[in-house]
Structures are given as C-alpha cells and as structure tokens.
Design a protein that fits this description.
alpha+beta, 20% strand, globular, 3 helices
C-alpha cells in the first residue's frame, strides 16, 4: 500500500450494495462491513475489500502525501505560514482517522 501511495497509483472504489456483507477487511483482517475495494497499481487486477475505517485512514494519508508532493514540486503558491497550517490540518485529519472518527 505504501508504494502505491507514493507512486500515486492507488485506487479506492465503492462496493455495489447488492454484494453480500460482511467480509474480512484486508487491512484489519477482521470481519467488518466492507464498503470499498482497494486496487494497488495500474496493472494490478486484484482488488482488496476494505472497511470504511480503513478507507478513511488511507484517504487521509493519501491527501497528506499528495499535498506534500505538491509543495515540494512548487505547485502550491501560498505563504509559508499558510502552507504550514495546511500541513497541520492534514496531520490532524490523519490523527482523527486513526482514532476512528469520520471527520475526514
């Protein structure tokens, strides 16, 4: 998962409602209501079922890594104080998602 996040090739898609639930979440390895599928890379044909909690955690990390990538590439044209507070907001979102809240 880490390599796909860094290479920007990770894909998260919702599961259709007609499929049977619950399943084992591939990341937590526990029976949970899996509402999304995770595909790693562009050429990977295998999908992994993940729950909403795992989806929120992955999405918040992807948002943080993407924003940091934009800053290092010079695509963010803000004052350094504003960039700092934007990074702090994304770090807060990662912490909130890790604790299991849905504010992401």
């Amino acid at each position: 998962v880490r390599v796909s996040v860094l290479q920007n090739t990770l894909s998260i898609n919702p599961v259709k409602d007609d499929e049977d639930l619950p399943r084992n979440c591939s990341l937590f390895e526990q029976p949970r209501r899996c509402t999304h599928t995770l595909t790693l890379g562009d050429t990977d044909t295998q999908s992994y079922y993940i729950c909403q909690l795992a989806r929120n955690r992955i999405a918040s990390v992807c948002d943080f890594v993407t924003y940091c990538r934009y800053v290092t590439q010079g695509l963010v044209k803000l004052h350094c104080n504003e960039v700092y507070w934007q990074i702090m907001e994304r770090r807060k979102n990662m912490t909130v998602a890790r604790l299991g809240f849905t504010e992401v």
